[in-house]
Amino acid sequence: MRAAVVAVLSFAATSVLCLQPSIVALQPKSVVQSRGRPAVAQFGFKVQKSERLLIREAWERADAFRPGKPNWFTKKQKDLTSLHAALLPEFDRPTLPPPTNATSLLGSLLKVLTTGDLALTLCSPEPPILTELRDWLVATMPMVDAVQGLPEEQGRVLATLVRALDARRILDLGTFTGYSSIARALAAADDAKVTCCEPQRRYANDARDWWLKAGVSPKMEMHEKDAVDLLKEMLANGEAASVDFVFVDVAQRERYQEIHELLIQLMRVGGTIVYYDTLWSADQVLQHEPKPTQRAFNARLATDPRVIASLVPLSYGITLAVKTMELDGVTLDAARDEDEVAGGKDKVHALLRSRRKEVEAALAAMPPSP
After folding, report:
1. SS3 of 174, please?
2. Chain centroid to CA 356: how far?
3. Fewest CB within 10 angstroms: 137, 152, 315, 365, which?
4. Domain 132-323 CATH (choose: 3.40.50.720, 2.60.120.260, 3.40.50.150, 3.30.360.10)
5. What is the spatial distance between Cα 256 and Cα 333, in angstroms, rounded to a whole number?
6. What residue segments make up the domains of the chain, in order of their start?
7. pTM of the model
8. Which segment of 75-84, 222-231, 295-304 scores lowest on mean pLDDT?
9. Beta strand 243-248 pairing with 193-197
């Protein structure tokens, strides 16, 4: 489930992912045995490889689907030490001139992915139902859908955060077939509630089925609608400052900023938002949308005084944002815009000082503890 690798492969390889489900069928044995050698006809002249074969070879070269484990194309377990040695030329080869961001991106990504596999050997075991769900994705869905599932290591992180925070009010935006929601539901207390949002009915129904298999249905609530619409409804229902934990994995990454402004109002102080797939968009080489829009979001989030933000370079990257204060977003945006024009931070600092005085006055007005 390595969707980010597709972004750094060639556009030709990426386009093949959008073809019919049959492209992911296993190749005949004769083709598998010839991997790594040019396709040659019996008379000795080269034959153009099919798109189906090209995409298979691209994924095998990148070891994109669980590098340390048997995958769609290779049933043999890979030795991770040997795999890292094979990848060294991609990110550690001396060249003249030195490797640039453009030439080292793929190697860096492969290094991160395979390191994630090594790290998993030192993590608590994955709940069997989640392993079964990931295997089901591979067995039943075309590649273009299956690679949208959450990587295994991300599920471990989400579960750990929910348990550490003792999160009871949880949101899941972009539920897909249910992996991330189940990972957190299993880690949460019995009285926790996981509100999920998946606009595509097919995937929403898949998630419901897996909730039943995992035994977490009583904790779950599904909304088949747009994430922004759901958040606005929650605010209209008086649910501001009530949410403990949110995972954001909506398909429209360019909407992260819009979603963030709504989530800030819904989160309690101390609540945590996790934004998925934020690392590689920071690379200036990637100029196709939504990458530039994501870069702008990452930069703005890093300087948002309402949160403490940290981008964790795990897999495709996750950004953790912990809410630290209540502050009106419209007022904050106006102050930040003025500071950007003036080239300073005076307006934002004045706004924060004003907010501090409001909090101190509220605390002073509270009755003494008995």
Report:
1. coil
2. 34
3. 365
4. 3.40.50.150
5. 16
6. 3-32+44-120, 132-323, 329-365
7. 0.71
8. 75-84
9. unpaired
Reported as a single tens digit per residue, the pLDDT across 222-232 is 999 999 999 99
What share of the chain in percent tops pLDDT 70?
68
Length of the chain in terms of residues written: 370
- For the chain, the average pLDDT equals 78
d(CA 36, CA 285): 29
Sheet holding 220-223, edge to edge: 220-223, 193-197, 169-173, 243-248, 267-276, 318-323, 307-312
Helix ranges (H only) for the chain are 3-8, 11-16, 29-33, 51-62, 80-92, 101-120, 128-140, 143-146, 152-165, 179-187, 201-214, 227-236, 256-266, 291-302, 329-342, 346-365
Q: Higher pLDDT residue, 205 or 23?
A: 205
Yes or no: say if 248 and 259 are a contact pair by the CB < 8 Å rule: yes
CA dist., res. 47 & res. 63, Å (int) = 25
| Predicted local distance difference test score (pLDDT) of residue 50 | 65
Number of Cα atoms under 13 Å in the Cβ half of residue 14 = 9
